[in-house]
Fold each of these.
Amino acid sequence: MSEEKPPPGGPAVTQTGQYDIRRFRVYRYKRGNGGERFDEYEVPVGPHTTVLDALRWIKQHEDPSLSLRFSCLHASCGTCGVQVDGREELACVCAVQDHGPQITVEPLANLPVLTDLVVEMNGFFARFPHEHPIIRSSGSPAEDENGEVHLEGGHEVTLDLPSAVPLHHHPLHHHHRAAPPAVDFVRLEDCIECGLCLSACPVAATSHDYVGPAALAAAERLLEEPRGVRRDDVLAWASRPEGVWRCHVGLECTRACPAEAIPAERIMALRRELMFGGPDDEEDRQ
Amino acid sequence: MSATDELPGTAEREQTGPIRHKGPGPSESGWVDPRGRGHGGRALALHRITGLVIVLYLYLHLGVLSMLLIGSSAWSSFLSVVTAKSFLAFEVVLIAAVLFHGLNGIRVALVGSGIAVPRERALFWAVAAIGAVAVTFAALHILGALS
């Protein structure tokens, strides 16, 4: 505690006039540099200090080698997900004052650690096989030898276009010069793709082929707003053995989700459709 | 690009680090960890634990019944042990496990089929309340307070 090291997140206003000090136990792992360990840091905190503020303070004042990932600072990008005292949180909006004198920060569970608090998110996206009905191409059309433009990836469902018009019907489509093939990526509806649900899910901890709450929630979202996707395809995909039936109703995904995408409720809605839905329901929707 | 042309650190970057898991041991115990769990996660863990207890009891029960093959004297001496008050406490634990597993199973079936999702939390507390009352009654009865 010193004048040179002010607390992050605003001035300290404790009754004693001193900074409130919290002890942070932070998970550390560097590839090729020993195993996993926890390092402890004492951090002065203010009334509005977030866990991300504290971690950045540690990096700035105590240990520049601490690796963390963040971007938007307002719970929108989903990059700063960590476990705080065992609970999944976005560090940028997790108030230190809601925790005790010692705060343990770990990377998300069920995903490979790259370094310190940074996990490999490919493990999250790898849960979405390419036949997932929500998969949307990032729109890197490529021309074949006849000059026809095709989407990389196979699904024609969506693009990030002003309207939900399949690419081959879009007026810009045939005028688009083929760009070099780019890596396709997956976008999920109503989800910031932070991976907190996967980390919190007790089933994902023991079942690596479970597609996870985010993908299933995205599939259910398609039932609400199909955008040209066939309803039967969505239900067929969701009903696979590694799909909705693998969920054991722990409901931790909804509790962890910072975007209120309510994945658990959506999984249950998919199940309800699979069990009780039928041709009559489909006719009603049409 | 040949291996010798690779940028420094390319191979190292391809290595995956450890996967953090909740729970006290290997990944298979990830569901046990109560830290940061809500009532749903804790109910799931308790449901599995009580399930294991019930399966263990089943085999224990079959093993005990096999004592009848030895003869009536062995069975009688065994009964004198299991009817002691201190041993009867285990029966209360068993009843608590069976009640929780059964009642929570009804809750999971109702929620998991999408029928009672909005009432999920109320169902959980109903399970807890009914179970607590039933276990209390059973404990008083088994331990002789009601006889």
Note: Confidence is low (pLDDT under 50) at residues 149-181, 282-286 of chain A.
Amino acid sequence: MSCFQENEEVGMPDDNLSVNAENNVSTSRRSFLKQATGLLGASVFVTSWLPPSAEAASPTSAVAAKPVTATPGAGLVDLTLKVNDREYPVTVETRVTLLDALRDRLKLVGTKKGCDHGTCGACTVHIDGQRVLSCLTLAAMAQGHEITTIEGLADGDNLHPVQQAFIDKDGFQCGFCTPGQCMSAVACIKEGHVRSDEEIREWMSGNICRCAAYPNILDAVKQAAGATPV
Amino acid sequence: MKNFTLTHPADVGGAITAGAQPESAFLAGGTTVIDLWKLGAFEFAQLVDLNQLQLRGIEASANGLKLGALERMNAVGENPAVKTHYPVVSEALLLSASPQIRNMGTMGGNLLQRPRSLTYRNPDPNRHDGPSRFDAIFGITKQSSAPHPSDLAVALTALDASVRIQGKGTTGTPERVMKLSEFYKVPQADLRFDTLAPGDLITSVEAQVPFARRSAYIKVRDRASYQFAVVSAAVVLDLDGDTIREARVAAGGVGTIPWRLPQIEAALKGKAASPETFQAAVADVGTGAVTHSHNQFKIELLKLTIIRALIAARSIV
């Protein structure tokens, strides 16, 4: 249930501890990975990012190991992204996608990067209430619009009916596609494309599930559609 | 994936001026441009974001169809007037891509998307696909045999639609209207299949077919949904009782550009709108086709797809 755990983590992005519904307090998976990476020693991980020439030339890899730096003097843009009713000022290169800005800069990591080419649907978010692919949207294009991510669905500790339905109907296995599935399902229900199983399948077809949990996803959308005023 | 600058012009004139600069590209929905840019298959120094422009509006009646270039695919496909008067357009759009992509993709951008082929989707212009079952059978050139990917363009080709274009002139930004049959050309050495000059901007798509309410789009895919066409057919029928006054037929998945089939239209004209007529009309659809062992099935599949579309259009009351 990675999406729901990370969902909770995001409420306090600078905090290494997050509330887990089952254990009350625990280290989140993401925080744990970050700490473990640090403990295992930066040299193994950091040098592997470097192109061979830089690796050889730079034993003190800390400086050279910043592969993503701004092109000097050009291509930066100051943005304010309004995500889940909260405003985030952020400076990014113009080429940064909304997906990367959400995950890497705003630390809203519930939105997943699957294919990064608009074919899998894992990165689905809402812009002004419409479901779109954040991997093919530049962050700079999203300024001035209302962005909603998986982290914005729940009302405090109360899961959105779609999230609850995915749990009730076992609508996932590995969970990686689930945030995108949930965002698409919320939109699908709001659009009214839930009048038959066939229609739900058609209008959920932009979200690929490698575990093939499709029958359960269909059941989850049907349950949520019944629980949500269309 | 080099970085680029991004401008947001507020009017068409500003967009054309910016778009005419060297190494500039227009950005509308982003579903093609960002994808190809990530692949290294499309580079630019400047992206010109068109989304501040007022190229909007959906007008659909028996008097005509006019779609603003920035209207999104879902908005047009789900528009009740488009569904009533131009079902072929609505069906082609709603059978395209995925709901998310249809919320992003625009009328103008859809017509300019590139084929799903290695030839178009990698940084090295010398790399080419080997023979594939997806290959086009019409309009093949030495440079490319990849089928044009747009469903909308096939529907609009059956409607003999036009694009309205504004471009950079010696003074101002003169406007011109081009039939899609002139707008598209088979791929040349530069792999281009449109006739736009730098800065040229599609502002709207227009068609005038008073009988288009009897029209249909049938798309055959390898998956049930969210897949490009193996073969598709767009037809429009003008019926006088049971007699075909006029027919329009175009096909997708078979041409390097959207492919109209005038010989089938001629074979249908004046005949009874019956399965026998339809079968006889498509019998020679393979004339002029270039096939190989992987894609020769497309001729038979195309016949059946056109017949299905004709039956669907005929059954509209």
Note: The longest strand of chain A covers residues 76-83.
Amino acid sequence: MKDNPYYPYDRTQASRYTFTSIGKKRINKEVVFTHTGIRDIVNMGFGDILPDGSIDDKANSNNGDIVRVLSTIVHILIDFTSRFPNKEIFFSGSTQERTKLYARILRTYYASFRKQFIINVLIKEGETYTELPFEPKADLKFHGFIIKRIY
Amino acid sequence: MPIIKKHTPTSKKRKKKIPPVVVVTNTFLPAGENPFPEKLKKAQEILSRTKFLNP
């Protein structure tokens, strides 16, 4: 995934990145990392910047450049984790469908991702969640992902 | 006869180009300014009930 073409991005704050998706339309996007206050885990949020400056993380823009957009996010992740290597990054989809999409991408590019990141998943067991190492062949319902940079 | 002042290229005053100032802070966005409050809340809710591999 990181070898695919990607959009140039701006980093105006340590935890805030923006880039423009250029497909059928030009869509400004933002990736934001925020401390969760739990361990050293940072939440990664991602969405479209709306004209009023707010962010829509549920938008399904269908701009025809999903691979390039996701490749850009991977590059942003690499940049962020190279500056904050001790942070763990949590992310999940804004919908279950989107979480499934992220799992599909992780499965597809697992061989490449595992060279740079430890990838763990969260599954639900009753009222609690359990962190497990990501197994591409495991048929489980994931509720989130935690990744950490390998050095 | 009027004196004609010759300008050589070296005598021209050149404006100094000032590079744009880009300020990159190394601090995280304050939680109050997070544009994804719902997502952060959901993450905190999940993580607070998570059994981690390395507690």
Note: The first helix of chain B runs from residue 37 to 48.
